[in-house]
Amino acid sequence: MAYPKYKYDIFISYAVEDKISIVTELVEKLERSGLKVWFAGQELRVGKSIQEVIKEGLNNSRYGVVILTHNYFTKDWPKKELHALWGKSDSFIIPIWHNMTTEEVKRYDPLLADKWGVESSKGIDVIIKEILKAIQENKQELSAIVDSKRTNLIQKTSFKTVLTFTSTGILALVALWFFLIRDLPPNSLVVSSIESRIEVMQSKIINDHELEMSKKNGVAATIQQVTDYHERYENIKAQYRNEYYFKTGYSEFNFKKNVEPALGVEIDHLAAYNNFGFTYPNIFAIDYLPSPHTMDVKTIFINTQQVKFEIMTEKKTEDERYLVEVKYENQIRYISVDLTYSKRSDWAKRREYTFQGLLPKETYRFAKEGGQWVFVGIN
After folding, report:
1. Does residue 211 come out as left (phi exceeding 0), alpha (psi in the -120 to 50 range) or beta?
2. What is the pLDDT of residues 229-239, one digit of tens each?
3. Which residues form the catalytic set?
């Protein structure tokens, strides 16, 4: 839904302590509603300036959703974001009161207490409904202003337009007619569909990862620590079993014979010592039951390099659909390896690989619905 002037519909301003309790689910459901959402959990990357990334997010977002909590008002960054939102001339702020009363909000910021908001106690679905309602009402107000200005402009310039209609104007009409007759999906729809696919997938991977780390006491790890785990596993003389899984959000593969061609890489060339093929990964470990005689550990590598894409081919089919083939770089986003070994299991050991990301190439499908081109899925 993002507006032409903006890359994102909504900027989420929140305190990191409130991410699990409300922000993660809120962002997921806002994106399901068709909104493009900016929030630090999926935009901040290793090596980037936090201040610059947040500034870019603020400048490229039409609306600001502010998650007001006691944590929010005690943190410097959220308050800076709020001040920046207040300072935007065309800003539209939607406050969410999370575990706070009107009186409590008023003590922190009287202006926010007087501004319309919704209480999180009513549930995420109610919050989504109210946000969409507020956005729609704001859009209608803006449309009325724009239509009024456009009418005045037409009245002032119509006579001049008739007088200055030349061969240049005829050529422009011919070009316009040509593109209308072609009846293809607009380039903006194609690009935004690809970008949305990448953003939603990345957000889900990070949110699921953070939830698992929180529940299972996972920690950031060094390459040496992870390599030690894998070398210890390799040195155990036991019967072994390897399992392989690859999830793209649209399809799932298992067994090496299916996963390897889907990934487009030779899995045997991926190992802890070479960062599983990533250049600058974030590395984590979850050690379930450390013991001299037992191993049950999960090592995780997350790709920090940005996904790049290139449109390879486009074609219209006989059933009035439009297919766009896209090629990616850095499409593998997440790799986890579960290592399990126990002396009590007859010296058997097990290793489970899980990959998440995009196929090296994907075909996006577009179709006409109600006279409009829409994205309908991926092959």
Report:
1. alpha
2. 888 888 888 78
3. 81
